[in-house]
Amino acid sequence: MQPMNHWQRIEAAIGGEATDRPPIALWRHFPEDDLHPDKLVAHTLQWQDKWQFDLVKFMPSGTYGVEDWGAVSAYRGAANGAREVVQPAVLRTEDWRRIAPLDVRQGSYGRQNEALAAAARGLGGRVPLLQTVFSPLTTARKMSTEKMFADLRCFPDELERALMVITEVTIRFALDALALGAHGVFFATQQASHRLLSTAEYERFGKRYDLMVFEALRDKARFNMLHAHGDDIMFDLLSDYPAEMFNWHDRLTDPTIAQAAERFPRLLVGGIDEHGTLLRGSERDIEDQVHEALSQAAGRRLMIGPGCVLPVAATDASIRAAVRATHQFQEGLACA
User: Fold this and answer.
1) For 174-200, what is each residue's pLDDT tens digit?
2) Where is the Uroporphyrinogen decarboxylase (URO-D) domain (predicted)?
3) In which domain, by residue range, is 20 found?
4) Rounded CA gap, 332 and 336, in Å?
């Protein structure tokens, strides 16, 4: 088969067609530097130039979506490079009423798309670029931390009013990202877990607003990736979302890749245990894990990726092993 470019490889993989090799994309945070648009852009371009992944997930700080509403965050050395909220914007139930519309071209929201636009110019359209967008319920939890769960059950009307405002802001931010050079969004939900909510609760407070975002992006994004964070995810509830790619912690929680391939008809993203095998395993361990994941999918409809985000301590040698194993898999099939 003739070599494919990044776009051809991703689009063929989404459609379940044969590819010259399986696609691969890995991503990581750049703590502290991700607060500065110019530094984040430089890291993004250097990362892609070094590894030539088939997709670029833009990596703003994970708390960018709550800071303009008054939440304060800090990086405290988390292994994955993520910031954490140290001062919530919502401390009491009545604080939900203060969640008002924002100008997404200003403040923290504005900085993320300013940086994305510069990265898009630097990448020149050679590779798909996704802006990271959090689900409205995820944003609500980040701005209130654990209190959100009590208010969801005791004061649902207060939360739902705020969720509508958050959804409208999320949509405007995502549409701006597309206008500035993103080809879609990496849509992350961190609450679609049976450990956190019932299915009925997620349908009311999560899925309803998630689908508003996806509907606003319909016919405007080339493709989107859905990320379900955490354990015991509601895979079946999420599997009918209009997303072309589905990413989850397949090495830590059900379903397996083989099981997911029977329930999601487009491109799965995963296969790497980023905090286990990639961080602590040998290069052979990493290669074996990549090949085992691709074998589960029979080499089709799987992009090798992390369950969430690489630890900042992941070494070049480990990343290189994952890339090498992915690039060589098709050759292995041909020789089998």
Assistant:
1) 999 999 999 999 999 999 999 999 999
2) 9-328
3) 6-335
4) 6
